[in-house]
Amino acid sequence: MSVPEVLRDKDLMRSWSRSRRCNGQTIALVPTMGFLHEGHLSLIRTAKSLADLIIVSIYVNPSQFSPSEDLSTYPSDISGDLRKLSAAGVNAVFCPAELYHSASGNELGGHREAINGERVVASCLEDVGSGHETWIRVERLEKGMCGTSRPVFFRGVATVVAKLFNIVEPDVAVFGKKDYQQWRVICRMVRDLDFDVKVIGSDIIRDFDGLAMSSRNVHLSPTQREKALSINRSLSKAKLAAEKGQKNCQDLKDLVKQTISEAGGKIDYVEIMEQQGLRPVEEISCPVVICVAAWFGNVRLIDNLEID
Amino acid sequence: MSVPEVLRDKDLMRSWSRSRRCNGQTIALVPTMGFLHEGHLSLIRTAKSLADLIIVSIYVNPSQFSPSEDLSTYPSDISGDLRKLSAAGVNAVFCPAELYHSASGNELGGHREAINGERVVASCLEDVGSGHETWIRVERLEKGMCGTSRPVFFRGVATVVAKLFNIVEPDVAVFGKKDYQQWRVICRMVRDLDFDVKVIGSDIIRDFDGLAMSSRNVHLSPTQREKALSINRSLSKAKLAAEKGQKNCQDLKDLVKQTISEAGGKIDYVEIMEQQGLRPVEEISCPVVICVAAWFGNVRLIDNLEID
């Protein structure tokens, strides 16, 4: 167990990485928002099998939260995180205080001004008067599912990941497949913008009771957590039904919805999509993924299950 | 005079560049759409003063043209270009046949489909059924001036420049200040997305008669060219008037418009903006730039003049 180097500055991070790559070492990046759990540690294990050096970034990205979302209550435990990252044998931790450019003299803070009459979609970043105005949009994949209820989410994720790629310059980046749509958005961005980064999706890690690991699980009461187990249960039921021959997606989605609703969850969406392009399918005839988002109290959870 | 290496493949281009950077050599990129003229050669001279090795890219980018624009008639002379680049002492020429991903099996060609009822802005890229769907938007700077009459232009430019940066990985990139808004859009993108590329704007090069150099000038008839000289004349007049104390921008813009209209040009826009953020000003009290776009027959020309 060696203590990882903690870097807070973009330029230092880049030169750390660049000097090692020039020496022939490969680098894997695991981007996180901190409050690390077993799911993150599993991403790190995947990363270690793919590259010589592992960098974990910790940054709660304001641009992927709407002002109405849970940025202010997003859990944090930086000293706990650093302990876990030491134990995990990570080589460097990138913890920038801020990743976005603040508004300068001749910039109006935050581009919330309506431009040519268009409504400006705003995140918590615009809310604090940032001078940032460049966004990466993965136009089709960012729509639907989480993009419907979280309109700034994928714009914020794609943009911050591009920034991290430009700062860290990794050979490989590992993302959790729990955020399935996010993973696909990033794969598509990397392909379309010619980033020389291999994007790896790592399998969902579940707690002993089957709940998909998430930093937000800490906000669940014991009763809510009990109810939330219905998500995983519903996905397993649907997969089993599909394997037994039920190919009609509407029926499978109804099964998932019913199971979660009966347990007391409030459905945000249940979708069955082909795995790569996330286009909805009506009959299962190719590898698909069932994606779910549901609320338990004030906590919104997502989960998914691939059917190959 | 040594013949530059001509690279057509993204991966070969990247490894050419990366191996030299690891050896401590710095690289400047001059992105072009070919049909090179003295303006481009001046960008190359600027580049040579800033880096050890010069790469010129030649690629007519379909995503910055609307289907109604002049992509199909954009002039081209690749063998002439290579001769000029040899004489200019360029080290490598990046001439990809295609930079965008084509639609694959499960992708509908071209994301022209209306998504959630939103109208999809389409360029010549969508028109040929590309699978590309990731766009970089510099939300404020891409609006107004050329962005008004060319709604896909800056989206296309920012996206292709990001791709070129990710493929070539230059230390420096040189752009002509004739495309003033484009230069500012790229500067902002680089800052906002943390590209480690120094973006340099190079002064406008004018022909013997004062016309700003442009590949499109070849389409002007001798009479149209004579008329088009009114652009530069109008800008000089306005600058002189400003230096003599005329600070009111509306009056200065009227002077420019009148001069060009009288010569037979059709004004697209005349704007006076502060130089960095391109926000319109009413009275000259900071460094500004007068930007003009006007039509002469079927040819749209742009030009500008800074007043410091």
From TrEMBL, chains A, B:
Family classification: Belongs to the pantothenate synthetase family.
InterPro entries hit by this protein: Cyt_trans-like (IPR004821), Pantoate_ligase (IPR003721), Pantoate_ligase_C (IPR042176), Rossmann-like_a/b/a_fold (IPR014729)
Catalyzed reactions: (R)-pantoate + beta-alanine + ATP = (R)-pantothenate + AMP + diphosphate + H(+)
Biological process terms in GO annotation: pantothenate biosynthetic process
Cellular component, GO, one term: cytoplasm
Subcellular locations according to the entry: Cytoplasm
An example molecular function term from Gene Ontology annotations: ATP binding
EC number(s) reported in the record: 6.3.2.1
Assembly: Homodimer.
Pfam families cross-referenced by the UniProt entry: Pantoate_ligase
Record's protein name: Pantoate--beta-alanine ligase
CDD domains (UniProt xref): PanC (cd00560)
HAMAP family hit by this protein: PanC
NCBIfam families (alphabetical): cyt_tran_rel, panC
Secretion signal span: none
Pathway: Cofactor biosynthesis; (R)-pantothenate biosynthesis; (R)-pantothenate from (R)-pantoate and beta-alanine: step 1/1
Keyword Transferase part of the UniProt annotation: no
Keyword annotations from UniProtKB, A to Z: ATP-binding, Cytoplasm, Ligase, Nucleotide-binding, Pantothenate biosynthesis
